[in-house]
């Protein structure tokens, strides 16, 4: 009887105490969750909106980033809620987490590249370092951007190759589609030609282009003697053109200069060598 | 007698309490497992299906990825269930896990490459960066893809070598089988030749190819004076061809240009040198 | 007397309780071990057999891998059993493991290379990336494989050197003994020669080889004008040969082409230079 | 009744004790927070102000740095307060944090680049290594600084490209806009020319520039025979110019020297070769 | 008196219990040690002996390795015994170890190179990758091995330099003293010479060497036309020689070939150039 | 009443015990602090003074280093005192620190570069590897040191660029301002000239410089035939000069040698080529 | 009264027990320390002495190493004693150490280079890899060793530069001052010269040096035809000289060979070219 009694009316007051304490803890936890969830989402939305206003990012992209961040936030919150609930009921989560830690370590080391990709991708988008259809050099690849993703950026090379570049490989971005580009032509004249005369011919051509070719935003102009080569005096012509027009402009200028030099009798010299005959 | 009594009717109420508490914990645990198992599988299936619809991955590949992910999920769930069961019966798993941790550290460092392989391989498949029979450059290897695995990608070089590339080595993929390819021919003419005349001859050839050769998707066309070389004026011809036809097309164009230049008397010059005799 | 009594009949019921509880734990542990041991071995055997069937690995190698994995599994099981036994008797293993952890960290960092070796070696064997007597390029070494071990692969260079390559250094394997190999000969003709005529001569040679030389599996054939060099027009001939026959075939073709060109009066030109005499 | 009594009047004194203890702890915590918050802010402000006075940083930048640091400080304080509050109510935060630790590890590895960016960026600003509109070489990029951010520095190359350089890539900064720059011209004369005579001509030109060209801050002067080349004796002229004027100055000097040498009959030699005719 | 009594006859039964429990633990520990110590040594000895039988390592080296491993094993055992003894007496070793852990981390990072050295050195010895007096290339150093240590390998370069190579730097070993070596001579003949005739002369020389020179283990033989150079047709001769005799053999063959070609009137051509005179 | 009584006179003796124990702990802690603080400072001062005496560092620099180290020491002491005080009052600092640990990990990884900078900078100063106004090569930068800081070293290149080098990038310092420098002139003479005669002329010049030029600390002297070039016999002249005078000295010697050779009729040859005319 | 009584005569027996237990622990600890301290020092001294006897290190250096190691050992012992003392009095050192751990991590990462320096420096000294006044190549620096420190090695380059090399940068040491050095002269003769005759002339010179020049320890001797160059037949002469005499010896041999070849009418040929005139 004593046994039964002991068994049946076991420490009810302790149980009650436990229930009350735990109940209070759970309520506190839920309140915390109810405050944290909308608060966090609001903060994310506001930060994104503020950032977008300042940086003038397109609405579509803002929504994408916002959704992504809120999703991550929700998952973390749920994970923490479950862990703490288990903790209140004293179901041992610590070993569970330690066990996960061993796995996590191996995975963490292996997957850090993935996190790097996403972090870099996030900033590529936020700081608008690259946009679709821009001509960039990034991660050793060179071409037109076809897609900027969180993990991978697709760049189409000029030879038609489609390059998939993990964002972590992009240590620095050279964006060739932001502003006017330089057109530069170096042309050698012979040692016997008069430098002033050659520069006058070049300047005439430059002036023609200035007047007639509206691809030029600035210049072109003759800079002077860039170097004294082993067989020629190198003159430099420089200008600023519309974006992506630099190559066509340089090709046109090269053709024009060759023809003008031919007309003016100025020689573009072949490599020279002085031969000393030994006797 | 007192001894025996003490021994036999030891703290039964405490034991009962323990049994009830633990029983409740186990039931809670099993319920958790029963919810988590199908839920997780469903989420995996749905995510994969959604991703596959969006990315249009073949059914076979979807099944492979789904099976792989569900397998991993199941193993993790079973591992956690066992760990927590042990925890409820207070069999010390913490030291066990700590011990495993020491091993795990050594293994984790050594095996991180393996995890990297699988993570990268997963995205190679999911993002369809490479497909079998495509011509790619990846991890310093160049050739036709024979197999894309979770750990290793097999690439057949054009010289017949079969390359086994661990996926982690693939930092960026250049896929040469996605779209039209560029055919580019640079050809030098002598300083004495008339540039306009040579460009006209080249354009005639380009027009012929445009009409008769349907391997060309765009062009070819003459771009202009690409550079003023030390012994020649370099002209550039550019077009877009069917994928993998670029080399044959370039070979045909080179032959045609050489023959047309011979016919038109335009010289493709040898290297020049001016000899000054010292006396 | 009170003292003695206290000392002698100390908390027997607690001791009894302890014995019963621990006894139960030990029994549970042994049962767990008795289930885990054969189960694990079975799983390993089955996995290996399944893998071997699929990949057609030789019986000897399967046995080696199986034995290795079962050994590792046994050691881990024994280690865990001892740790948990100590845990039940409350002999403090945690500090022991922590102590080992400090050592383990230093060793783990230093020995991770060893683990990398074994992991890579395991997959070299399992995925049959290299076999003995194959000609491979791996880890910067080039030659015939003499032995593939779990830690080191031995490669015999063609100059007679025996290279010991730690498996971790093998980031990618180029296996030159899997399938037909390419035979490729580039040959230059002079600017004055007729391209069609030269290609006809080359194709005649190719046809001869096709008929008479069964080392060729495909081709050889003339591809066309590969490049316009500074002093010659380069033509390319390409075929597929038996494995390892590619070098002998190329040597034979080079000899044959030289002789045929001599007979047909087609010049293989020396480097050219145009001399302009300055006066 | 005994049951009820037990349940209702459970350990009130313990609860009271708990409340008092915890209340005291919370009060202590809040006091700590109230001291730490303004104190920390004050220390940050003062440090920044002191640093700014010493380094003469613009007011705008000081405010930016101050706000950034106070923000970080506030977030850390709030995070710690919450964690300790939870700890006082014995809501298990340790597992929570351990769980976060597993995540944190993965993120920490992936995001360390971000922290590196900010740390380096902070010192770029504080130590004023680069300013907007300066010409620098940093992280392999070369050009005019357009913006120095905490994460990214924007450098405009001279060819018009806009480079986004993550600050962590900037291992050393070469700032070309801090002080006078060197103008250096190397000019070769023939073996037959008199060295003293040539150096006299060069010094005359140098003296002209010294008098007439106020872009020169020091020199230019003739240094002497820099090297005995295979075909010429190389003389060196050196001076210090205004910042960014060095290239124009060098171009002007090259032109002037060429003209003066022509006038004085001093030869700038072509490469020489002695020809031995074999008989 | 009550006080004194309390103080003096404090919980004797508890103390007794403690003593008995701890005594049992210590006995268990000592038994464990007494089993582990000889068992471990036996396992080490047997493993080493087994390994040595299989690999045929010299007796001296086996003893060295055995002694080293048993030493390490003993130190670890003693360390663990002390730690666990402290644990039984509840002297707090955990903080001690944690403290050591902080130190250990710093040291571990710094000293991992040392561990790497020993691990690599151990396998260099065990796998007999290098032996004293062999000619090897390892870690970028090239020469005769003078000593293989656990930490450092000493290599004497052919120029007399003594190189100390930390074993960790040895990522792969090229051992040039294991088997016959290749003797290879490439020789160019002029375009005008008859290939068959030249190959016949070379084969005659090869046959002479085969008969008279017992340094050759295989060959030498003429392989054929290795390449068509810009000025010559390159023929290749190949053979297998005694180890380290390859250089002397090649020198002798070169001299013999030059003399035979002179006798047979076959030209080894100088670089050729075609001169086109521009008029 | 029972309730109240229970509540009011709760475990006073326990509280008293707690107060006494904690009081003792706090006193012990304060005593520890009071001993550690001045002791540590004294040790730092003495160490610095001792080091400075031995290394002869300037007083200003000693003060800087001393202040820096004492500051760091004080902050660490205060941090530890607060942590331990919290620990005595059982305010849970462990989770706090664990939380900080997660942050700390991320920051630790990111900021380790900063610590590296300071550690390296400390030794740069202490070991006096570089001083202001010395000419050094460090971290790939070359020039005059303008400032050595704890984080950054400023080096002024000879072209006027100011380089900011983070100290961690300085893996080795080449200090060119510590002792006499070498002046070395290599000069080629023709194959036809008499070597002894040319060496006599050179030695005469060397003797002139020895007598008249006190920039030379040792030599110069003729060493002999440094190499047999493809067109000349190269002779070497070597001497030791005052620091930073080496370039001017070399320039003067080159000029003198050229003039003396011209006077003595010794030829400094152009590149030679033997022309074989094919008929 | 009950209250007071309770407060005053609180658990004295417990306190007594505590004092006795702790006293015992402290005594045990001190005994441990008293055994460990001299024992450790003895072991260090003996090991060092043993090592020094075996390696014949100078007495001064042994003392330095011994003092360094005993110092480190003492600090570690004191640190551990304090930590354990705190642990006995239950002053919470664990959080303290954890706190230090966060700092320690950051510092550990940053300072690991320092530990690497000392570890490498220790072995540089112990294994006598470099001695003062030896000519070595280490860490990319080349010159005479001026000082070997635990952290830094000072190497004086031949151009007078003083290099400070952190020991960690020294991955392998090439010591050029350990034994005889090789003197090697390669000399080309023309295709027309008789090889046997030229080798006879060279051997005569070698024999002269053998007899008259005691800087030679072995040889010199003529090896044979080292290579068939594009314009010459290269012969090799090889010998072993006194340490550091190799350069002077080579210079003397070059001069002697040139003079002997001139006397014997053997040509050292200039580069050759065959000119084919196109008509």
TrEMBL record, chains A, B, C, D, E, F, G:
One of its GO terms (molecular function) is mechanosensitive monoatomic ion channel activity. Residues 185-268 form the Mechanosensitive ion channel MscS C-terminal domain. Its main location: membrane. Residues 114-178 form the Mechanosensitive ion channel MscS domain. InterPro entries: LSM_dom_sf, MS_channel_1st, MS_channel_C, MscS_beta-dom_sf, MscS_channel_2nd, MscS_channel_C_sf, MscS_channel_TM-2, YbiO_bact. Keywords: Cell membrane, Membrane, Transmembrane, Transmembrane helix. Residues 72-112 form the Mechanosensitive ion channel transmembrane helices 2/3 domain. GO terms for cellular component: plasma membrane. The keyword Membrane applies. Belongs to the MscS (TC 1.A.23) family. May play a role in resistance to osmotic downshock. This is Small conductance mechanosensitive channel.
């Amino acid at each position: 009887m004593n046994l039964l009694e002991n068994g049946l009316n076991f420490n009810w007051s302790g149980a009650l105490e436990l229930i009350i304490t735990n109940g209070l803890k759970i309520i506190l936890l839920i309140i915390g969750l109810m405050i944290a969830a909308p608060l966090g989402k609001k903060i994310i939305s506001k930060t994104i909106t503020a950032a977008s206003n300042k940086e003038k990012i397109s609405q579509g992209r803002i929504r994408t980033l916002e959704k992504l961040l809120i999703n991550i936030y929700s998952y973390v919150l749920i994970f923490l809620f479950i862990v703490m609930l288990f903790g209140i009921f004293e179901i041992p989560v610590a070993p569970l987490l330690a066990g996960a830690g061993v796995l996590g370590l191996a995975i963490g080391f292996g997957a850090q590249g993935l996190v790097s990709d996403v972090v870099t991708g996030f900033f590529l988008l936020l700081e608008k370092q690259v946009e679709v259809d821009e001509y960039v050099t990034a991660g050793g690849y060179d071409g037109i951007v076809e897609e900027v993703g969180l993990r991978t950026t697709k760049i189409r090379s000029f030879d038609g190759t489609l390059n998939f570049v993990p964002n972590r490989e992009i240590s620095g971005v050279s964006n060739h589609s932001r502003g006017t580009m330089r057109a530069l032509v170096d042309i050698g004249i012979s040692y016997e030609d008069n430098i002033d005369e050659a520069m006058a011919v070049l300047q005439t051509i430059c002036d023609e282009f200035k007047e007639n070719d509206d691809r030029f935003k600035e210049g072109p102009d003759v800079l002077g003697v860039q170097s004294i080569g082993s067989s020629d005096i190198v003159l430099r012509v420089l200008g600023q053109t519309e974006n992506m027009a630099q190559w066509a402009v340089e090709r046109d200028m090269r053709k024009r200069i060759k023809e003008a030099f031919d007309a003016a009798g100025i020689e573009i010299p072949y490599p020279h060598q002085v031969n000393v005959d030994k006797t």
